[in-house]
Amino acid sequence: MTKALYRHSLDSNFPVAVKGDGVYLVDANGKRYLDGSGGAAVSCLGHSNARVREAIHAQIDALAFSHTRFFSNEPMERLAAELISDAPEGLTKAWFTCGGSESIEAALKLSRQYFIETGQPQRRHIIGRMQSYHGTTSGALSAGGNIGRRAVFEPLLLSATHHISACFPYRGQREDETAAQYGQRVADELEAKIIELGSDTVAAFIAETVVGSTLGCVAPVPGYFRRIREICDRYGVLLILDEVMCGMGRTGTRYACEQEGIAPDFIALAKGLAGGYLPLGALLVGDKVHKAIEAGSNVVMHGHTFTGHPAACAAAVAVQEEVRSRDLLANVRKMGGMLKSALSEHFGNHPNVGDIRGRGLFLALELVKDRRTKEPFDASLGLAERIRVQAMQNGLICYPMGGVVDGKRGENVMIAPPFIFEEQHVFELVDKLHRTFEQTLKYG
Ligand SMILES: Cc1ncc(COP(=O)(O)O)c(C=O)c1O
To answer: In terms of CATH architecture, what is 17-48+327-443?
Structure first.
């Protein structure tokens, strides 16, 4: 393996992936890995879908690239129409990016532009939530509240970003309150923060509809987002939902917020949009924002060279056609239910599994040293990495992550397999995960 490559973990010796085969990845030695997490909740169609591969080849043969400053292109237009066709009410435009962080940057900047266009330049604050991750670029990292990932870069982050508590019932809900009361209490932190900052100075609130890997597939309690929407409306604050990980069908509906009964002003998308066949993200934009820009400068003050890349959009059109024509969201709900039951059956009484949670094929197990007190393992054990490595030795890709409790302590293992998962894959996954826990948790 070349020493020229600069990689994420400098001392890791990763196998070289050479082939995708349905829900499996194959390395250069011919070893097969069951993809139990779609990478990071990306590969919704697995790794060898014929329709998507053909669509990409055909698009590249016809037109590989044209810059959006000079041309529109067919796949970009088709994809925008497809995403808007069943988007939550009021979302009428789709803007394309190369990934999740870029989608978030676009949402933050368009929020600011909206208030300039509508004569409210004092609105500059962005409120996010603790332990959320919105991406790695400076604006997205600033909006996120993941202490561990922010720490080194703190002096460089945007000072106009602030954070309230996450909605995380397993660790946050008190014994003397119902889930609904808990949801109201943490949602009301938004109102308190808006008032603290100055009620007409806040531009946007940003949250993951279902929190991804940093907390481990945490869905909101019923009513939480309705209360958030009410507060945003009362104070004229835009609502950005980050569905980079939980959107595009992963929780059983195309947009995760459909299950909350609310519509935001923006939805950020990526990952499952093109299923990993090519890099692509999108930002769905609400009509209110669009109309203000149209009536004002009439220019979106943002952009990238590769916005609306024809081949990436063609891949996404094919991915979404495949999901729709095979009714794969029904399979997400069915296999998600089966997988959650199988996880509960095998790990529900495990002394180190504190919680099993999530929606659709977006599930996680939270690991604890003590189930009764919910005390996490010592961070110095590096348990998440140990589990990842051991699972790969067992031929399983899952997505363990540390820092659930405070950015450092607390591990969860995310399971987010392709939407084409079948019953036998559920059994294989649970069996391999079981073996992995037996080999790793004994060190705890
Ligand atoms: C919820 C969420 N938002 C944003 C991002 C950033 O996306 P990307 O890595 O494509 O820039 C991620 C990435 O994991 C994510 O999980």
So the answer is: Alpha-Beta Complex (3.90)
Cβ-count burial 169-190 (b if 16+ within 10 Å, e if not) = bebbbeeeeeeeebbbbbbebb
144 CB-near residues (< 8 Å, 6+ apart): 128, 132, 133, 134, 135, 150
The residues pairing with 401 across neighbouring beta strands, listed in sequence order, are: 412
314, 59 Cβ separation under 8 angstroms: yes
Nearest atom (ligand 1) to Cα of 137: 11
Assess whether the C-beta atom of 101 lies below 6 angstroms from ligand 1. yes
| C-alpha 214 to ligand 1 mean position (Å) | 11
The Å distance, Cα 129 to ligand 1 centre, comes to 15
Q: How do 281-286 and 91-97 pair as beta strands?
A: antiparallel
pLDDT over 50 at 444, yes or no: no
Atom number in ligand 1 closest to CA 208: 1
pLDDT in tens, 170-201: 999 999 999 999 999 999 999 999 999 999 99
- pTM, entire model: 0.98
- Identify the pLDDT of residue 99: 98
Contacts of 207 (CB under 8 A, 6+ apart): 128, 129, 132, 228, 240, 241, 242
pLDDT at residue 151 in the model:
92
- Domain 53-325, what fold? Aspartate Aminotransferase; domain 2 (3.40.640)
Q: Could you give the 3-state DSSP secondary structure of residue 337?
A: helix
